[in-house]
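Give me structure tokens for this 605-residue protein.
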Amino acid sequence: MVLEEEIPRFAAWIGPALLNFGATAAAAGLVAAAAAWLVQAIGYGPLAAGDRVYRGILGGCADLVGSSPRRVYALARLAVQESLRRNVLVVLGVFALVLLFAGWFLDPANPNPGKLSMGFVLGITNFLVCCVTLLLAAFSLPADIKSRAIQTVTTKPVRTAEIVLGRTLGFAAIGTCLLAVMGLAGWFFVIRTVAHVHTLEADDLLEATDAAGVASGFTGRTSLERGHRHRVTLDPTGSGAAETAQGHRHAVSRSASGDWIVGPAEGLLEARRPHRGTLRFLDRDGRPSAKGISVGNEWAYRQYIEGGTAAAAIWTFSDVTEREFPEGLPLEMIVRVFRTHKGRIEEGIHGTIQLRNPVSNVRSQAFPIVAREFTIDSLFVPRALEAVLADGSIRTIDLFADLVADGRVEVWLQCLEPAQYYGVAQADFYLRAGDGSFAVNYAKACLGVWFSMLVVTALGVMFSTFLSGPVALLAALAVVLVGHFRGFITRLFESQLTGDTKIQPGGGPLESLVRMATQESITVAWDPTPAAQAIKAADTLLLAPMRLAAGVFPSLAELGTGDFVAEGFDIPFDLVAAHGVEAAGFVAAFCIAGAFCLKAREVAS
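Here you go.
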């Protein structure tokens, strides 16, 4: 799942983000000025070094303020022409070859083919676009300086800030064109990959009867396509639906000639808008529990509840209103199963879902479900439903009048089969609050790739102003690699301050070193001995500067939103806006730093 927490509103996010950016930029600027003064002091003395640094800062600021848009545009156009002379468009041929041969390696029988193909397309597009622009940015300026071609620019009335900004915009324009072509080709590739058609013949169906022996419809299976079939349940008229398999379903109808028509796949390429709740557990005796049962999986993302007991997973949904869900609650869920004995594996594991009022404890009748692996199941809870009263009697109630209290309602999940287990996480149950356009959602994912491309382009240009091409490339890759762990460092520091090991187990550098030496599990809490307290205090001191430095490194993984599209969830515009502002902040910072570095370098010598 891609959403464990609600995305904050952009209006609430932007204020603290700007303060944090300003503090980080100020700290980085002071460190850079101090380093420049120290280097100058070695050769010219403290006073002269201070004067040189002061004049350099004033000159750099004057260059930034006095930059001309016309000269920047001219330099950007030169950067585009230079990129074309280097045959950068060859990468489009590479991308086409990758798509042509992708069918050999993408398994059509994958449990989630939409996620597989979408993740592949966005991943390869991100990799190729960022690699091309980074290579151009890292090697272009050092090559011009080495060949002295830069003198034809610096002898004209061109400022250093204009050189840096012009190259950044030029290479970014090349990357934008490449992304547009790759994104469009990737769209058609995904549509073609997931499209398939099943057939349904009379021989595939059996007549179903009710308890009185009266014909009630048909049951059967569709033809085998892309490594899967669908179970089919039809009414007496021949209309119905094919059950969910591989993350999608099909509508079934009967033509006037008596043939069954299986519709196109539904549910593969969607942009669901989830309304999420919070999760808590009851143990096998029905008592509140901090978490579910661990079945030994190394990745403890999901917790499990035991079947045939009072164990339950309970989601509490807030802000549930009649205006948002006028017809009822469209509940969607992912339930994993863990079997202690195989049984009839094709039938799934049976369980129930119940709605309860968190205040009055009025509960609805149980809705039966059958959990199968790798599927997203849905359950529509209507406005009028049956409820079980305290005396065991049953009456019809209204969903919002009797089960929703102050906008809150509880959804209880229980497994019915003994010795079998249901596995769930907080993000696995949600109310489907609507749908967005998949095409728009795909475009927003490509916009996330564009943000990453802008950041690596500015990063490469910055390092190329004072390093050789290969070294600038390695430095940019190192920054990207460190930025990949920015979220981990943030969670580790928060866990160290709060003492909550659930945020990030394992402790800081010294604690991790001790655990590795003693081969102690990261899940085992330390006793509060003086030695343990001293190690934790030292780790806090070590993590504090690491946490501050982490803000300087961009995280391309956090800028990417491909997981949303692959999982079938709509990318919130608040998240897109936040990523856009973050990318703009990094690009501006890198361009300013590159302008100062280039001014400090005697390029005309």
